[in-house]
TrEMBL record:
<keyword id="KW-0812">Transmembrane</keyword>
<keyword id="KW-0732">Signal</keyword>
<feature type="transmembrane region" description="Helical">
    <location>
        <begin position="308"/>
        <end position="326"/>
    </location>
</feature>
<feature type="transmembrane region" description="Helical">
    <location>
        <begin position="251"/>
        <end position="271"/>
    </location>
</feature>
<feature type="transmembrane region" description="Helical">
    <location>
        <begin position="54"/>
        <end position="77"/>
    </location>
</feature>
<feature type="transmembrane region" description="Helical">
    <location>
        <begin position="98"/>
        <end position="123"/>
    </location>
</feature>
<feature type="signal peptide">
    <location>
        <begin position="1"/>
        <end position="38"/>
    </location>
</feature>
<feature type="transmembrane region" description="Helical">
    <location>
        <begin position="167"/>
        <end position="191"/>
    </location>
</feature>
<feature type="transmembrane region" description="Helical">
    <location>
        <begin position="277"/>
        <end position="296"/>
    </location>
</feature>
<keyword id="KW-0472">Membrane</keyword>
<keyword id="KW-1133">Transmembrane helix</keyword>
<feature type="transmembrane region" description="Helical">
    <location>
        <begin position="211"/>
        <end position="230"/>
    </location>
</feature>
<protein>
    <recommendedName>
        <fullName>DoxX family protein</fullName>
    </recommendedName>
</protein>
Amino acid sequence: MNLRLPSSPRACTTVRRPAAVAAVSAALLLVAAAPASAHERWFAEHADGGEWSFFLSPVPLLLTAAVVAAAVVWRAVGRRLPRPELRVLEPLGRLAPYVPRLLAIHLGVSLLAFSVTGAFLTPSLPLEDVPGQDLAGVVQAAVGIWLITGVRLRPAAAGVVLLGPPALLAAGPVALLETAGLLGIALFLAILPPSDGTFGRVDPSPERLRAALLSLRALVAVALVALAFSEKFTNPQLARNTLEAYPQLDVFGLVGITVPTDVFIAVAGAVELLFGLLVLSGAIPQVAVLVAMVPFNATLVLFGTTEVIGHLPVYGVFLTLLVYGSNRATADAVPWLPRAADVRALRSLRRPGLSRPQPSVVR
């Protein structure tokens, strides 16, 4: 029997693409399967951070360098893969017009639940520690309800921004950076709010969608990177307290592999840093989201309702990236990053008499 191999470059690319997607999926899954993604401050005794000597030790520095290199390679590989990369998930792309409405519901339910349970913006910040706690709780709940309704959400998005100063006064700038993802969702909704149409349907222009997704990705990445440092890389004692209280989080130990506690903490921080960089990159979003859901869901059985409420906005972000990344018409907008030409285009808009330049599209 004669076997004829594909001879054309297009045919060879078609053969290689599924293998490439499978390879990057397996690699990321192997990395993400290490530590579970629990937020230490939500469940463990607090400890002062700022211990930069831990981060500057060999293992965390080596892992950080490896993670940055992996993120660069991930984006380079993503530029060569088809979009969407997982065609089996294309039916999810039909939800794209309704994503702003769904994202607003995720954030609104979370804010309302925080007020009901006595927290502010995050389970680790008690409402009683916030200046004007009663008013702050009422405003947070009101903004949450407004977001759930889906009606005229630009002012509601501004309301989310106004929740930042009380959090800053109560817990400081690091805590505010840790909740930057909420601001990212607010900016997304300010740029791309649900419409008054059926189920808030939105059919945005490519420029508006790119701007909304870039704002979302950038601020969610800030939150994940901040958490990697504030809860692990520069606060190993907090991570030690968490592992002491919940030894089940040490997945290496569960499979019979003995790893020093500080090495495990460094690996956990590196994984969180990796996810932050992958969100910022926006490349291969379907694979990245599906793999990220593994550690983000692994602790639900252990921590229950608190974990669900705290991660609800993150789930909304994952849904956003997954749906837009599964739609052929919007997939190119997910990994978009502005180039020098886009900056020049924005500057030229200020000059009278010039036509509006078209931003570049990153492939």
